[in-house]
Amino acid sequence: MNVPAEFARAVCPHDCPDTCAMRVSIEDGRAIKVTADPDHPPTQGALCTKVSRYAERVHHPRRLTTPMRRVGAKGEGRFEPISWDEALSIAAGRLSEIAARAPEAIVPYSYAGTMGLVQGDSIAQRFFHKLGASQLDRTICAAAGAAGLKYTYGASLGMLTEFYAESELILIWGSNPIASNLHFWTRAQEAKRRGAHLIAIDPYRSLTAEKCHQHIALKPGTDGALALGMMHVLITEDLLDHAYIAAHTLGFDALKARALTYTPARVAQICGIEEQVIVDLARRYGSTKKAAIRMNYGMQRVRGGGNATRAIACLPSLTGAWRERSGGVLLSSSGWTPTNSHKLQRPDLMPGWPTRQSRVINMNAIGDALLHLGDAEFGPKIEALVVYNSNPVAVAPDSERVAAGFAREDLFTIVLEHFQTDTADYADLLLPATTQLEHLDLHKSYGHTHVMVNLPAIAPVGEARPNTDIFRGIARSMGLQEPALFESDETVASTALEWSDRALEGVTWETLKQAGWAKLNVPDAPFAEGGFRTPSGKCEFYSERLAHEGLDPLPDYLPPYESEDGAPELAARYPLAMISPPARNFLNSTFVNVESLRSTEGEPHLDIHPSDALRRQVANGDLVRIFNDRGSMQARARVTDKAREGLVVGLSIWWKKLAPDGRNANQVTSQALTDLGGSATFYDCLVEVERV
Ligand SMILES: Nc1nc2c(c(=O)[nH]1)N[C@H]1C(S)=C(S)[C@@H](COP(=O)(O)OP(=O)(O)OC[C@H]3O[C@@H](n4cnc5c(=O)[nH]c(N)nc54)[C@H](O)[C@@H]3O)O[C@H]1N2
Ligand SMILES: Nc1nc2c(c(=O)[nH]1)N[C@H]1C(S)=C(S)[C@@H](COP(=O)(O)OP(=O)(O)OC[C@H]3O[C@@H](n4cnc5c(=O)[nH]c(N)nc54)[C@H](O)[C@@H]3O)O[C@H]1N2
Ligand code: SF4
Ligand SMILES: [Mo]
User: Which of 35, 58, 81 represents a domain boundary (last residue)?
Assistant: First the structure.
């Protein structure tokens, strides 16, 4: 491959299924432009609008460039610069003191600010394991879906994204690819041009739903019922692939009995859609050979998210859609990459391993956890929190409690960041981290099947250091001796994958570094002949493992916690369901501080159906207050039938301090967890709305 000398090759680090390859143009040591690498097939020559602005973010005038110590009150955001030596010694002093007494009082908090395997969770995890600190259950996004796939297919596996271009029917299910999975959308459009039929299943008429042939606007959180209703029709009208079912699935009779209780009439009632819509959908799905489903995480942020994923994942195994490379389903492809997470994260460094493991804190309940005083069941009160790759004060649910936790005077908080985010305002120590253009990393993807290398394109901005370096520095200041804590980034990267796995045939760290990326060796139609990674090797409609854990072994519909069916008394007080899915120009809370992107989004909005608006005397453009028992926020009303009746939509995730009232959607979301996987339930949330 020919890369002109003035370009450096990089990988988009963001939490996005597309994992694009980028080229960085450099002038006088500064990145001046980031463009798509035209040679990388999944990137298809285009980056999204946000990341086209990456250079603007890297050299932003408000980038953090030196370590800082808090001088104001918690949350006020007043700091003074200090040296790295001083910062590392303050961190080491406090952490050593706590670790000597109660190591589990130290809690790491991180998510996917970068998806890199090295700057994500390598040295940092090793460090916390070595201390015996609490572990964090990283469940804020995808855990329900991952669990649903694990119990059904054995891992996060699915069809290959390139073959959607050949599909004849695509169900875009709980997914808004124009905003959040752009390179899938180009495949879907290609299929559309060839005559494919596109159906969006989404309570909201998203940018994507608007461009599909059909939009099924079900009530949020009712996807499991819809999938079971489709099964009812597939079974009663015999639109099944009996040979596939016999050879490659487990538990058909039991699933059949369950599905037969979900008559289209019952499902219509649950989902708030017409019975005929369900029948037609199932008939079309069951009678199209190249029928593909692109599920995405939007449908699993509710109580029944795990079961719903399982129910949808059963569909292509009932109809035999897996026989075609352009048939099947994709939620995440991350399981195709043979990652060696044990080597990366070294859980064996935990004291007492493997008989004892340190306490686990579910990140979705960080608000409650920070406010817990500690007892025999919970363990010690949290005394130190180390945040990296995440902005919990903006993104974690039930934000009033999260912020109250961060405001605790007796909590020692370290934040590693690029910018002074809402979370950074609460830091005792604020440490400047490098961006993707300044450090080395190795990436897998959850939307395609390439592994990719990111090499530093420019020197660190200011005194910024890679996460790995910061943790090595703290470990050294603490006098820790464990060699695994001091491995170089390149050593970490070179041992992160199982190079001997068939998926990486012919690929080594050296060749990968040279080439920039490698396509994994995955069959075009991965389950055409079965080969699921469950204990039985089959697609498990019935899961012995779930039964063993005392859970329902069959997929079922669970009404949302906050719904008329789930909590009628609450629904009477707070009759509107609120969802807060990603805005197109932000990436979670990243880029909200990039002025050009924020100005495109304008201000926080709330989409509300005309009849719901009328009932509350809300007119288009009015400022409204959205509230429930957990909190409130304000937004500008957009009266529109894009939101179905009974639903309000506030695209997210705003930095609180950049919103006019200093609040965001997580003021009203809850810390409740999903049925499987302990995931967040951001879209399982009832509110009321009033004019300000
Ligand atoms: N531009 C942009 N891209 C992003 C992100 C971003 O913030 N901005 N975030 C990234 C991250 S971390 C993730 S996890 C993904 C998220 O992207 P997706 O996986 O696509 O998920 P969401 O955007 O949460 O929701 C997608 C759609 O699901 C709909 N939805 C909400 N509730 C339900 C429901 O109960 N059932 C159904 N069927 N649909 C529902 C929403 O209205 C929305 O249109 O995108 C990634 N890409
Ligand atoms: N209301 C509502 N809330 C949501 C969601 C929603 O749809 N609605 N979506 C949820 C989902 S799906 C997700 S995944 C979470 C996302 O939550 P987070 O993973 O917290 O994502 P971001 O808000 O993008 O914050 C990432 C931060 O990491 C920083 N960062 C990036 N790279 C590096 C690095 O190399 N080093 C360091 N130290 N820092 C770095 C960035 O500057 C940024 O501030 O939010 C969840 N919250
Ligand atoms: S955010 Fe997604 S679409 Fe945009 S450049 Fe990164 S990987 Fe590509
Ligand atoms: Mo996410």
Answer: 58
Q: What is the pLDDT of residue 501?
A: 97
Q: What share of the chain in percent tops pLDDT 70? A: 99
Per-residue pLDDT, 4: 45
Distance CA 656, CA 585 (A): 16
Ligand 2 contact, 454 CB (< 6 A): no
- CA atoms lying within 13 Å on the CB side of residue 312: 32
Q: Calculate mean pLDDT across residues 321-343.
A: 98
Query: Concatenated DSSP letters for 649-687?
Result: E--B---GGGSTTS--GGGT----B-SSTT-B-TT--EE
Q: Are 335 and 157 in contact (CB under 8 A)?
A: yes
What digits encode the pLDDT tens for the residues 150-189? 999 999 999 999 999 999 999 999 999 999 999 999 999 9
**Which tokens in the block code for residue 370?**
């920070």
CB 51 near ligand 3, within 6 Å: yes
Rg (CA), the chain: 25
Query: Which of ligand 2's atoms lies nearest the C-alpha of 391?
Result: 20
Q: Is residue 344 part of a domain?
A: no
pLDDT at 7: 80
DSSP 448: S
- Write out the two tokens for 405: 């936790």
| 288 within domain boundaries | yes
Q: How far is CA 538 from CA 155, 158, 252, 524, in A?
A: 12, 14, 11, 18
User: Which pTM was predicted?
Assistant: 0.97
Number of structural domains in the chain: 4
Domain ranges, residue 672:
568-691
Per-residue confidence (pLDDT) for residue 6, from 0 to 100: 66
| Same-domain pairing of 608 and 484 | no
CA distances (Å), 554 to each of 37, 252, 392, 546, in order? 44, 10, 34, 8
Three-state DSSP state, 309: helix
Which of 52, 139, 175, 207 for mutating ligand 1's site (highest number of atoms within 8 Å of CB)?
175
Q: How far is CA 295 from CA 259, 329, 536, 654, in A?
A: 20, 7, 24, 25
Report the candidate in 279, 311, 280, 283 with the shortest Cα–Cα distance to residue 295: 311
